[in-house]
Design brief:
The protein has about 180 residues and is an alpha/beta fold. The protein contains 5 helices and 9 strands, in the order βαβαβαββαββββα. It has a domain of about 130 residues: Rossmann fold, CATH 3.40.50.2020. Helices cover about 25% and strands about 30% of the residues. The two termini are about 25 Å apart. Bound molecules: 1-O-pyrophosphono-5-O-phosphono-alpha-D-ribofuranose. 1-O-pyrophosphono-5-O-phosphono-alpha-D-ribofuranose binds next to strand 2, strand 5 and helix 4. 1-O-pyrophosphono-5-O-phosphono-alpha-D-ribofuranose (PRP) binds next to strand 2, strand 5 and helix 4.
């Protein structure tokens, strides 16, 4: 249901604030149980994961630390080529730590695949992934997602950290953009 606060560019709300809260409560409970007594490090992938990570981390009932990486694809067609580069690396050494990668969305899978290879090489005690949104129809490489929020169709989604041209990241829900917005019509 739309109300006045929803921007015109939004076609449909896919997950309300309440639905996101419920999914995060469940994820946080699972992670807190799975990592009890371990040295847990959450790695948020900027920019998209900043809100998800903040809300998830504050729900955890176990001690943990937080770090960030920033990644970028090479050029406009880069996701298709699968090339990813590091814009900002971790401050933390992850060797022997229990690490969870926190991502807002997995689309082709190239970014998460790159990260998993990169971080495995640094010899953490364990490495898992926690992803808010997955678009299975878009997948080009197989990646393992250990904690998943929602599976969504192949639509451009914004809100709760996700953007279109750096807009809409702070909407409190996840929504599909009208196709004419990103098709330039
Ligand atoms: C998004 C998202 C993932 C990546 C997923 O980042 O945060 O990192 O794309 O796509 P893939 O599965 O096809 O690799 P984006 O490049 O939009 O940057 P942002 O998080 O800074 O918005």
């Amino acid at each position: 249901m739309k109300d006045k606060a929803v921007p015109d560019e939004i076609q449909e709300i896919l997950a309300t604030t309440k639905q996101i809260d419920q999914v995060l409560d469940k994820m946080a409970r699972r992670i807190s149980a799975d990592y009890s007594g371990r040295d847990l490090l959450l790695i948020g992938i900027l920019k998209g994961a900043f809100i998800f990570l903040a809300d998830l981390a504050r729900r955890l009932t176990i001690p943990h630390s937080v770090d960030f990486m920033s990644l970028s694809s090479y050029g406009a067609t880069a996701t298709a080529s699968g090339e990813v580069r590091i814009i900002m690396d971790l401050r933390t050494f992850i060797r022997d730590k229990h690490v969870i990668i926190v991502e807002d969305i997995v689309d082709t899978g190239y970014t998460l695949q790159y990260l998993q290879h990169l971080l495995e090489a640094r010899r953490p005690a364990s490495l898992r992934s926690c992803v808010l949104l997955s678009k299975p129809d878009r997948r080009l490489v197989n990646v393992k997602i250990d904690y998943l929020g929602f599976e969504i169709p192949d639509q451009w989604v914004v809100g709760y950290g996700l953007d279109y041209a750096d807009r809409f990241r702070t909407l409190p829900y996840i929504a599909a953009l009208r196709p004419q917005v990103y098709a330039g019509g």
